[in-house]
Structures are given as C-alpha cells and as structure tokens.
Amino acid sequence: RADEGLKALGIDLDGEFAELAAEIPVTTDHSRRWGAGVRRLAEAFAALGLDPEPTPKFGDYSRCRRCGRCVLGCPAGAKWDARRLLDEARAKGAKVRTGWTVDSLVTGTRRVAGVRARRGLRHAVFEADVVVLAAGGFGTPAILERSGISCDSRLFVDPVLCVAARLDGARLDREISMPFIIRRDGYIISPYMDWLSFFFHPAWRFPACDIVPLMIKIADEDKGKVGAGGIEKSLTERDRRRLAEGAGICGDILERIGAPRKSHFLGMINAGHPGGALPAGSGPEPFHDRRLPPNVWVADASLIPSALGLPPMLTVMAMAKRVARSL
Ligand SMILES: Cc1cc2nc3c(=O)[nH]c(=O)nc-3n(C[C@H](O)[C@H](O)[C@H](O)COP(=O)(O)OP(=O)(O)OC[C@H]3O[C@@H](n4cnc5c(N)ncnc54)[C@H](O)[C@@H]3O)c2cc1C
Predict the structure, then answer these.
(1) ipTM of this predicted complex?
(2) In angstroms, what is the span from residue 136 Cα to ligand 1's centroid?
(3) Three-class SS string for 168-217?
(4) Alpha helices, DSSP H only, in the chain?
(5) Mean pLDDT, to the nearest integer, of 191-218?
(6) Taking 90 as the threshold, does the pLDDT of residue 109 lie above it?
(7) End-to-end CA separation in angstroms for the chain
(8) Cα(198) to centroid of ligand 1, in Å?
(9) HSE of 148 in the Cβ direction (CA atoms, 13 Å)?
(10) Smallest Cα–Cα separation from 133: which of 299, 281, 312?
(11) Of 97, 131, 140, 300, which is best to mutate to test ligand 1, by the most ligand atoms within 8 angstroms of its C-beta?
(12) Does residue 143's CB lie within 6 angstroms of at least one atom of ligand 1?
C-alpha cells in the first residue's frame, strides 16, 4: 500500500484496500523459503542498522520452486495475477478481446461512442456507453493524445539501478525477486536479479549463479512527458543524488558480505513504474479529470499523483476499484 500522496489529496481508499486484502492473498510467508544468500544479505543490512522488511507479495509461496524466474513469469503458479479477475469477468458474461491495440477514442459529440482499435491489418470500432482506459502510464496518455486530449508533463517512472558484485556460488539467481526491502528517504534497496543487465550489459559477463545484485529504486521527480509522439524522460540532479546515495549503501553491503569494492559493477538504468500523466486531484471527482469526456475514465497508474519509489500494483488496483464504483 503506497497511498500517502492520495491521502494528502483527501482521498481515502481504506475500504478498497480492505476489499483487496479479502480478495487477494498477500503474504510475507516467502521469508521461510529464503536461501543462504538472501539471509546473509538481510543480516548485513540489519548489522548496518538498516531494517530489512520482508516484501508483501501476492500468491501462495508454498508452491514456489525457487527458480528465480519471478519477473519472467512464474512457472510454478505461485504468483497471483490479474488473469484470475479476467476469468471471473468472463464467467459473469464479459467478452475479453485480446491482441487489439486501441488507437483512439471515437469522439465527436461531448460523449465518446467507443474506441478505434487495430489488430494486425484489421481495423475496428468497438462501440461503448462507457470507456475505461487502463493502458498503463505510457499507453493511456498516448491514446488520449491521439484523441485530442493532452495530459500533464508529470511523468515519473521509478528508475532502477543495480549494483552487483561477483561472489562465487552466491546463487541469488535462484531466489525470490525482491524478497525484502529497506526504505530510505526517496528510495528503496532490495536484492533483485536484473535480467535486463545480465543479458545486455557487458559488465554482467559472469555466470548468473555468481552475481549478487542489489537494486536501488528511487521516487523520481515527475518531470517527464509521454504522448503519441513518444517519451521524454531524463534523470534530474535530485534523481542522480538518490541513486548515488543508494549505490554507496549497496557498496557497503557488498563489501560486508565479502566482495571487495573494486569487484563491484553497475547495471543499466531502467524503469517499470510509469505513471502520473493524468494525476488524481482533489474535489468531488478526484479520479475523473475535467479534460475527460463524461463517459471516459482512466483506471491505471496514470492517476498516481507523484512517484512512489515503491511497488505500486496494490495502489493501482485500489484506485481502479474506486473508479469502477464511480462509473
Ligand atoms: C519487470 C517488472 C516487475 C514489476 N514488479 C512489480 C511488483 O513486484 N509489484 C508491484 O506492485 N509492481 C511491479 N511492477 C510495476 C507494475 O507492473 C505496474 O506498476 C502496474 O502493472 C501498472 O498497472 P497499470 O494498470 O497502470 O498498467 P499495466 O499493468 O502496464 O497495464 C496496461 C496494459 O495495457 C496494455 N496496453 C498498452 N497500450 C495499449 C493500447 N494502445 N491498446 C491496448 N492495450 C494497451 C499493455 O499491454 C498492458 O497490458 C513491475 C513492473 C515491471 C516492468
């Protein structure tokens, strides 16, 4: 749960979070399955006075085979994911069309009449009384801009940088992704096997089983722009300071577990939490921006008012529940 920014706007999602807690198994039980590598890292953080908290996760971790492929899709089915909600919707009569890319809203009058979409060479209009856009922090602003509605230049992405070291036989590649986090002012640190850097960064040339990776994820300044023309996003001075501070802590931890500083290497900066382009506001309809036609709603991370620097999924779902209620 990461809704401080929403609370500051007077938006209380306690009811929605309580519903989610009843519907989705959220657990820290996975901590019983941590291997020696994760436990050693947790001890090193604790010894430096940095309090490692097991990360709450969706799912049933008694099924986890510790294959370390959490972010690539879970072959054991331990992770809960939103396909279960789609199954429920289908059972209640919803038709789910996959593989279609929404291009724009069908505008004309004050209300929209549906969406224009394409699938390969096929083009279609899907008529609708109400349209709920949930194409994510990059996708939704692009659809809106193609429909003549511009969003705010307040894109954030929660940039990520991994600091890693070689330690033979560490086997962090077989661990649950982000088993614990430590929180600092404006960023978190967590063990995280950065497959992107492993496959594409020349410094990550060691066997995966011998790499100890620590991830820094920052709450960045919301100064980016996303629209139909693409994405503009750079790190600001404050973002760089946060990454550098986090990298210093990661260096201390890696040294503490036996990897000398000269053996440390960095990953590629990447990001997976885009949002903020149509932020929730205060007032009677905080999740219905006045730029939107009356029968168009947004229900995704675009609504988050500022970078969280934390996993946002539960908060996105809580906001989506409130939007569903407002339709
Ligand atoms: C590798 C990775 C790991 C992550 N791990 C976690 C985690 O452990 N916990 C956590 O809380 N968060 C995690 N996140 C972040 C989380 O996935 C996102 O914050 C969250 O999914 C955002 O929800 P959303 O509804 O805004 O967008 P999304 O979940 O991205 O959904 C948008 C959907 O719309 C589709 N789409 C986009 N454009 C169009 C279009 N024009 N037409 C039709 N469909 C379109 C996309 O394909 C996508 O399926 C992770 C992200 C990444 C990249």
Answers:
(1) 0.98
(2) 6
(3) CCCCHHHCCCCCEEEEECCEEEEECCCHHHHHHCCCCCCCHHHEEEEEEE
(4) 4-8, 14-23, 36-47, 83-91, 136-146, 195-200, 237-256, 313-326
(5) 96
(6) no
(7) 24
(8) 22
(9) 7
(10) 299
(11) 300
(12) yes
Q: Which pLDDT value is given to residue 228?
A: 85
CB 196 near ligand 1, within 6 Å: no
pLDDT tens digits, 294-315: 999 999 999 999 999 999 999 9
Domains of the chain: 37-57+157-271 (3.30.560.10), 83-154+276-326 (3.50.50.60)
Per-residue confidence (pLDDT) for residue 130, from 0 to 100? 96
Ligand 1 atom closest to residue 274's alpha carbon, by position in its atom list = 19
- Indicate the SS3 state at residue 14: helix
**Nearest residue to 30 (alpha-carbon basis) of 179, 206, 248:** 179
Answer yes or no: is the C-beta of 186 below 6 A from any ligand 1 atom: no
Quote the CA–CA distance of 74 and 99 in Å, as a whole number: 22
What single DSSP character describes residue 251?
A: H
Asked if 68 and 175 count as a contact pair (C-beta separation under 8 A), the reply is yes
Cα–ligand 1 centroid distance for 312 (angstroms): 10
Which SS3 state, helix, strand or coil, does residue 286 take?
Answer: coil
Question: How deeply is 292 buried, as exposed, middle or buried, from its count of CB atoms within 10 A (0-12, 13-18, 19+)?
Answer: buried
Residue 4 neighbours by CB distance under 10 Å: 12
- What single DSSP character describes residue 79? B
- Retrieve residue 80's tokens: 């809960």
